[in-house]
């Protein structure tokens, strides 16, 4: 399997985890919806197990989105390079921040939050 294929599997898993987390669903809840164990959901989300096309469709239906939303666009690949959103959505805390941040309606507040996070990260 090529490195690129592994990267896509990992990206799909991270996007599944991000969407699930943004909806407030546990891995167990998603597993029940799909008729699989939470351990299998963990394996999909970590990229350990590749998600079949039919299972990915089931996941998209369960999470109320399109299958395409789980794949990075070519533009995102070029823009993100080796970093980008991957470190942010790799943790539950990062996914929570990523899910909540766009819901902050005030642009000034979003800028302030961004500055606080940058200051904390460099401390």
Automatic annotation (TrEMBL):
InterPro entries: Cro/C1-type_HTH (IPR001387), Lambda_DNA-bd_dom_sf (IPR010982), TransReg_Diox_bact_type (IPR050807). It holds the Pfam family HTH_3. It comes from the Bacteria. The keyword DNA-binding applies. Keywords: DNA-binding. Residues 16-70 form the HTH cro/C1-type domain. PANTHER family: HTH-TYPE TRANSCRIPTIONAL REGULATOR (PTHR46797), METHYLPHOSPHONATE SYNTHASE (PTHR46797:SF1). This is Transcriptional regulator with XRE-family HTH domain. It comes from Brevundimonas faecalis. The lineage of its organism: Bacteria, Pseudomonadati, Pseudomonadota, Alphaproteobacteria, Caulobacterales.
């Amino acid at each position: 399997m090529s490195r690129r294929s592994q990267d896509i599997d990992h990206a799909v898993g991270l996007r599944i985890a991000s969407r699930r987390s943004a909806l407030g669903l546990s891995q167990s809840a998603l597993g029940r919806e799909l008729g699989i164990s939470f351990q299998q959901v963990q394996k999909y989300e970590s990229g350990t197990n590749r998600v079949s096309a039919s299972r990915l469709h089931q996941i998209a239906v369960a999470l109320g989105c399109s299958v395409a939303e789980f794949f990075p666009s070519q533009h995102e690949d070029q823009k993100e390079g080796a970093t980008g959103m991957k470190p942010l959505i790799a943790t539950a805390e990062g996914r929570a921040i990523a899910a909540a941040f766009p819901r902050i309606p005030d642009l000034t507040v979003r800028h302030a939050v961004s500055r606080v996070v940058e200051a904390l990260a460099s401390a």
